[in-house]
Amino acid sequence: MLAQHGAQVVLTDVADDVHDTAEKNRKDGLDAVAFKMDVTRADQVNHVVQEVLSKFHRIDVLVNNAGIYPRSNLVDMSDEFLREMFDVNVFGMFRCARAVLPVMMKQRYGKIVNMSSVTGPMVADPSGGQTAYAATKAAVLGFTTALALEVAQYGINVNCVCPGHIDTPGGREQTSEPGYPDESMEALGRTIPICRLGTPEEVGELVAFLASDDSSYLTGTHIVIDGGNILQETYRGPYTPQ
Question: Fewer CB within 10 Å of terminal CB in the chain, N or C?
Fold first, then answer.
C-alpha cells in the first residue's frame, strides 16, 4: 500500500521470500527493494540501514511490523519462549528505531509506525495462552508514547496501530488450531460489529496515512482498527449486514 501511494519501499524479512514480494511489486510497476534481515540481530539491522542510506541517502519512514504470536499458558512457558517473544515483538522495534533515528534526527524529519494490537489493552478470548503476546503488545504502546516525546522536537512522529482480527495467512493458521473458539475466519468475522474481518490492505492504508504529512500533528498515539470489536462490553452477535 505504501508503494501504491508512491513510496520507494525497502522490504525486510527473516524469510527469503521477501525478495519475491519485492519482485512482485516491481512487476506491478512499483518501487521496491528487499533485504533479508532478522530484527533480533542488531548487526543485521545496522547493516541494512547503512545499505539503504548508501543507496537512497535518507530514510523517511520506518514501519515496525515484525512479530510472532505463538501461544503458551504461563505455567507451561519456558524462559526461551518468553525471550524470543520479547526479542522479536519489542526489542526488534528498539533495534530498528535506534538504527534509523540518527538520520531522521539529522533530517529533522521522520515517521515511525509501530504495530501493536488490540491484544494488550484487551485479550482476544478466554482460552488462554496470550500472556506473553499481550505483554509485548502492551509494551509497544509504552514504547511508542515514550519515544514520541523523546524525538518530537526533531520533527519525528511516532505512532502505533492496533489491529483487531485481520484476514491474514497467520490468522487462518490460528483458526485451524484445536480448541480455537471459532470454526472459521468467516465465523470469526460474524462476531465483529462491522460483520467481517479486516484486510491487510485496510491496515496498510492506515499505516500510509500515519507515514504521510497528513498526520503531521499526530504523535504518541495509537489507533485501533478492528471493525468496532473493542467497543463491545457484551457480545450480541452473530452480526449480519442490514
Answer: C
Give me the amino acid identity at 4: Q
> Out of 69, 109, 133, 180, which one is annotated catalytic?
133
The pTM assigned to this predicted structure is: 0.93
Question: Model confidence over 30-57: pLDDT tens digits?
Answer: 999 999 999 999 999 999 999 999 999 9
Q: Give the per-residue pLDDT at 10.
A: 98
CA dihedral 60, 63, 64, 68 (to 10 degrees): -160
Q: Helix or strand or coil: residue 88? A: helix
Nearest of 151, 158, 160, 144 to residue 219 by alpha carbon: 158
- 133 among known catalytic residues: yes
* Structural domains of the chain in order of their starting residue, each with its CATH number: 69-231 (3.40.50.720)
